[in-house]
């Protein structure tokens, strides 16, 4: 009986002493599919009426709709249409970035050789959970004795939104 216990003891030691040569674990997989980011323009960028001057000047239109003139005048009695641009961004509560051009050119409708330059775009987002409303202002640059007329560019400028 003693031999039997000794053999059983060494058999169990031999089983526990053998090393494991493989192991496995179960890994779960997941994916979340999100909606594509969208942007829809709701309002165009309008600087309103500007009075030309003998010197070059600028009109700064803020995203809140206020405007300030340097070197030129703006008429409070006949302001014309004054609006910051506005767009609705649908982002599903995900982070995103906004890209704007460095500058954009407007052409005189009667004389396309006469131009105005818009630069220094500024953005003010009104954040929501799934959508944001972004308002865009900029700086309108006028030359000295800028030719009067209606300035526009039918191609518009791109406002690009991208997920981060």
Describe the protein's architecture and organization.
The protein has one helix at 2-17; strands at 38-43, 46-47, 50-51, 57-61, 67-70, 73-74, 82-83, 85-90, 96-99, 103-108, 115-126, 131-142, 151-152, 160-163. With 164 residues, it is mainly β. It has one domain: Immunoglobulin-like. The strands form 4 sheets. Strands 1, 4, 5, 8, 10, 11, 12 and 13 form an 8-stranded antiparallel beta sheet that branches. A two-stranded antiparallel ribbon has the order 2-7. The protein has a two-stranded antiparallel ribbon with strand order 3-6. It is elongated. The model has no long low-confidence stretch (mean pLDDT 91). InterPro entries: DUF4402.
Count of the domains: 1
Q: What is the strand tally?
A: 14
Instruction: Please state the structural category.
Output: mainly beta
CATH class wording: Mainly Beta
Describe this structure in a few short sentences.
Helices cover 10% and strands 42% of the residues. The protein has one helix spanning 2-17, and strands at residues 38-43, 46-47, 50-51, 57-61, 67-70, 73-74, 82-83, 85-90, 96-99, 103-108, 115-126, 131-142, 151-152, 160-163. The model has no long low-confidence stretch (mean pLDDT 91).
What order do the helices and strands come in, and which of them pair?
Layout: H1 2-17, E1 38-43, E2 46-47, E3 50-51, E4 57-61, E5 67-70, E6 73-74, E7 82-83, E8 85-90, E9 96-99, E10 103-108, E11 115-126, E12 131-142, E13 151-152, E14 160-163
Antiparallel strand pairs: 1-8, 2-7, 3-6, 4-5, 4-12, 8-12, 9-14, 10-11, 10-13, 11-12
Signal peptide: 1-19
InterPro entries: DUF4402
Organism: Salegentibacter salinarum
């Amino acid at each position: 009986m003693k031999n039997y216990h000794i053999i059983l003891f060494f058999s169990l030691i031999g089983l526990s002493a053998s090393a494991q040569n493989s192991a496995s674990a179960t890994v779960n997989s997941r994916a979340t599919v999100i909606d594509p980011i969208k942007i829809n323009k709701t309002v165009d960028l309008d600087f309103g009426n500007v009075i030309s001057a003998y010197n070059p000047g600028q009109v700064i239109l803020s995203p809140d709709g206020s405007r300030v003139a340097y070197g030129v005048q703006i008429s409070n009695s006949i302001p014309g249409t004054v609006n910051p641009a506005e767009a609705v961004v649908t982002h599903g509560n995900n982070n995103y970035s906004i890209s704007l051009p460095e500058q954009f050119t407007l052409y005189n409708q009667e004389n396309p050789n006469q131009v105005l330059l818009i630069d220094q775009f500024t953005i003010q987002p009104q954040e929501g959970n799934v959508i944001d409303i972004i308002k865009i202002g900029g700086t309108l640059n006028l030359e000295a004795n800028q030719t009067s007329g209606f300035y526009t560019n039918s191609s518009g400028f791109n406002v690009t939104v991208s997920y981060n």
